[in-house]
Amino acid sequence: MRSSHSLRSRFAILIALLVASLSWLLGTLIGQDASQRIRQEVGHDLSEIAFMMVDRLDRDMQSRAAMLQVIGKLRALSQPDDISEVRVLLDRLQSEFPSIAWIGFTDAHGTVLASSDGVLEGASIAQRPVYLEAREKQFIGDVHEAVLLAKLLPNPTGEAMKFVDISLPVFAADGSLVGVLASHLSWAWADEVRLAILEPIQQRRHVEFFVIGKDRTTLLAPKEMIGQRLHLPALNQLPEKQETWAVQKWPDGREYLTGLALSQGHLDYPGLGWTVIARQPLDEAYAPARDTTRNILLWGSALAIIFALLGWLIAGYFTRPLRQIAEAADRLSAGEISVIPELKSTREIEILSNSIRHLVESLTHQQNALGVMENLAHHDALTGLPNRVALESYLPRAQQHSQAQNSCLALFYLDLDGFKPVNDQFGHAAGDQLLREVAVRLRGCLREGDLVARLGGDEFLMVLLVPNNEALTQAQQVAERTLLALRAPIDLGDNQVQIGCSIGGALWPLDSSNMAETLELADQSLYRAKHAGKNCAMFHSARQQ
Fold first, then answer.
1. pTM for this one?
2. Residue 93, phi then psi, degrees to nearest 5
3. H-run or E-run covering 400
């Protein structure tokens, strides 16, 4: 009896050591692999976020420059008979666009004839770059401080005000210089762009934005870093790559996952060489991998204890009934039987037989549970719609199916109009309820074989299979049906709200044979839809016709 107990104890300890060692080994390997994958995924995300912001800054600068070009061609400026009319125009322009801190119109010699709120009227800016550089062509100046103007403008924060200059010449009909239309854009709008992009992701991860000038001077950053020159090795890669990411050691001595994107300008705006940087502390980025490793080790320790107990039981079963169980296990593995038979023998053998039966059932349940988890991983938890992972898996199959049927794919980017006010007024619970109702309505607008996925927040993507000869017509019909469905009032219990939707669409492969480029065209169409007044649909193909 003593010898038997000793064997069981040794056998139990051996199993416990093996399971614990395997758990530690797997935990270490999985943790390292997860860290690498998370680093790559978060790094790409950060570079994409940085690109989104620098693209937004470029687009905003281009749109403001284009707006001033239109203003500069007005008769009120090219033939300034009534300066009061020009002053009213400039005041109205500043009130409509708060990012314009000051805008003025000078004569051909640089004296300010009219300006917003009358600031600097009668003063000469003939020696300022905003006038000197704009006598022949449009001038866009980089971020700078304007001490004199800052003293004349309201400044609730008391901090040094920074501006971006946009100015252009105004010519008469005979081509002579009438004057210069000069403006100072408040650099505060860049921080507003940062907050607009950062807010959706700030709850999930701690990300910081930096805007770096062409000379690597920090233009937008935490207060203590503004004006300092930033030297990171990754900045040297940007002339070759528009966006990149890397693990970088910053001046504070800490390592960060760092995403970088270089300004490329937009349309006729060449850009000022800005670089946008998004960073996240490396320790915080690796937190999910550490949690995974810790959970594996905890579960491994628990399993080591459980299997040690089982091993203590198994050690007493080296008898004929054990061989019967082994034979039954072989038959189960070969598919001859579906369960381990219940053997009638000693109480210990019956316990072991039942334990193995329960283990098989548990593994079956776990396999089913894994199937459920995989399904959850491909669907949005709030709306039940497919997510980005499911979309990336679906698109290649949809392309093959479309080619086999000689048809094409219509891709819709959808962005809800009026969703944020609902969140702000009624709370996130109401916003979640609204998103679930939107998901139901979007499903109702689809045909068989179509897909709608939630990309995040209030952004969705529709994929439609449409015939080549009627691709744009059918896509527009579905888009109109979707707009109509989302305009209908939505009941949120005690409240009833009404929202809208902006849609940007493109056709693959009619607009582009590259799926990524087609998605980009759809995104650009959405941008046009937003600027066209929202609650409408814009298609790249329709623009080409």
1. 0.48
2. -65, -40
3. helix 388-404
Quick one: DSSP state of residue 99?
T
* Annotated catalytic residue, options 458, 491, 494, 523: 458
Q: Are 243 and 48 in contact (CB under 8 A)?
A: yes
Clarify whether 458 is annotated catalytic.
Answer: yes
Does the pLDDT at position 2 exceed 60? no
pLDDT category at 312 given cuts 50, 70, 90 is low
Q: What is the pLDDT of residues 118-144, one digit of tens each?
A: 888 888 888 888 888 888 898 888 877
Q: Are 56 and 48 in contact (CB under 8 A)?
A: no
Alpha-carbon distance of 383 to 414, in angstroms, equals 15
Please state, in angstroms and rounded to a whole number, the distance separating the CA atoms of residues 90 and 18.
79
- The Cα 178–Cα 79 span in angstroms is 8
Q: Which of 498, 495, 383, 496 is nearest to 437 (CA)?
A: 383
d(CA 97, CA 91): 10
Alpha-carbon distances of 49 from 6, 196, 265, rounded to whole Å: 62, 12, 17
* % of the chain at pLDDT higher than 90: 10
Characterize the bridge pairing of strands 537-539 and 500-508: parallel
